[in-house]
Structures are given as structure tokens and as C-alpha cells.
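Regression test attached.
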Amino acid sequence: MEQKDKLFKEIFDSNSKKIFHLCYGYTGDTDAANDLLQETFLKVWQNLDKFRNKSLISTWIYRIAVNTCLTYLRSEKRQAKDELTDNIIENKIEEFSEKNEQVALLYKCISKLEENDRLIITMVLDELPYHEIADISGISEGNLRVKIHRIKQKLTELYNQYASV
Amino acid sequence: MQAFDQIQELWQKHDVEVKVSADEMLQQVKKEVNGLKLKSALNILGMLASFIAIAVLWVFFHFESWTTHVGISITLLAIGVYILILYRDHRLISKSDYTLHPNEYLSDLRVYQLNRYKLYNSLYWFYTVALSLGLIFYFIEILAHLSITMTIVAVGFTFLWILFCSTILRNAVIKREKERISLLIEKFERISAQISMP
């Protein structure tokens, strides 16, 4: 058990920041991102014995996080409670404005994307290799490249549109 | 006009702070589960305190009528059985650790929810009837020493108290507990459902 605890702590310390960033990009809300981070690593803890080094551990954790994020907002209760990401972002933007307006705007633009696109672009922004993103999202690399190109364009468009307002 | 590269740079420069550590995270999950366990344990302790208080009353006070002894026996028996049921349910949610055996815990939690439902419905009425019967027997000797007014006040107050516990309080407890367990089950189900497809 001690060895598992130690391994888990190492995995958590080396991956939690990126996973939190992914969850934060997806929800735009610190509390929700913390909830998602917690759920993700709880699953990691429970499945640590089953991990067989077929892929990179970071890829495996990303895949868990992506599934967790996608399931999270689909829960009817949570949708009713949180009124989805848009509103959260709208509320949070006030807190951001003085500190970092541009970052707040970026999160707002990400929140305007489709659920899957949000996760893909977050991984792209974090510079994950395309083959890893393809593996995590279950899309072929060829299709993914096209998709990423489209999402990049859309995000840039949205960003410039909001920045000029 | 910003290009995607600049947006990416902005993203990477934004440093996020993870406020939770690995230890805290596991503790947090355990805390939710422990909250339910603690509540169940407190419930048992409360009932146990009532049992002891009545038993002490029985031992240290000299009651003359057999009806009082029958009344206290019935009351103690009802409370004792209730404690045993509560303890059985408490063991159900205490025996497995969600962080180690999630599916087992989830299945126990579902049984616990069903048991609580039975406890607050059919079993609760047996308990109320037994308690009322015990009090009726107990009051025969006790109320004989009181004036008519005091008798009416004591009987009226006891009746209203039992009525309040069986209706308003019972419904509120059922509603609150149902919501609490359902939320916990919903959360664990959501987590467990994804475990097989990470």
C-alpha cells in the first residue's frame, strides 16, 4: 500500500497541473476544475494496478480526465445547478478583469467551442503531440489534423472578435 | 489581430495553481464517505444514550406497579431493536472503503439506502407503536400521582411530541437523508461508470 501511495503521489505531482489546466479550460471555473481533478485522480488511484504501460501514463491520465470532463457537465443535476460554462465564465470574468483580461477572454472563447473541441484545443495549447491527442480523443490522426485546424481557426476568430469589442 | 501562436503563448504563460495535494484529495473523498458514517454513528450513540438513561431510571427508581415495569421493558426493547437495526446498517457502510473497493462500496450504499427507506417507513411505525404502548403502561403509575391538569399536560405533550416525530420530523429526515445518499450514489456511480472505460 505504501508503494502505491508513493507512486500515486509522484504521478499526481507530475500531472496534476496539466490536468487542472485541462479541466479549467473546459469549465472555466476553479471549483468545478478542482472537482474534476479530484474525480480524475480518484479514478487513477483505483485503476493504478490495472495500468499496463501500453501507453504513456500521462496519455492514460489525460484520457481519464477527458472522459471525466465530458461526463461532468452532461449530468442533468450539474447542468441545472451550474447553468453551464458560459454563465460561469461570465461571472468569473469580473474577477479576472484586473488581473489578466486577456487570459479571461481566452477562457471565454474556449467556452464558446463545442465540448469535444474544447478538450482537443486545450491539449493542443498544452502542446501534446498529435498522436497522443488522437489516442486520447479516439479520433484518427488524419481526421484530427483537419479538426484541429478548424478549431484553431475558430478560436482565433472568436478571440479577435471579442478582443475588438 | 492575434494569431493562434500568440493565443497559445498566452495560454502557456498563464500559470494555474493546483490547490489540492494528493493526500488532501484522497482525504477529501474519504471525508464525504465518513460524513455519512459519522452521522450514522451519532444516531446510534443518541439512541444508546436514551437506552442507558431509561435503564438507569429503571434501576435507581423504585416503581411499585407491574405496569411501569412492563412499560419500561417494552420501551427498552423497542429502543434496543432499533439500535441493532441502526448498527447493522452502520456496519454496512463501514465495512468497505470507497477509495479501495468502489464497486463493493457502491453496492453496499444502495442496500443502505433501501434499508433506511424501510427503517423510516414500515419499521418506524412498529417502533412508534411499541414506544407508545410502553409509555401508556409507564404512565399508569406515574400519572396517578399527578393532578388532573398535570396529567392532561403530560399526556397531551407526549401525544403531540410523538405526532410531531412521526409526521413533520420524520418526513424532513427522510427527505434530507434521501437527498444526501442519492447525491453520494450519483457521484460514485458517475465515477465508477467511467472506471471501465478510461
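Expected vs. actual: identical. Residues 148-195 of chain B form the longest helix (48 residues).
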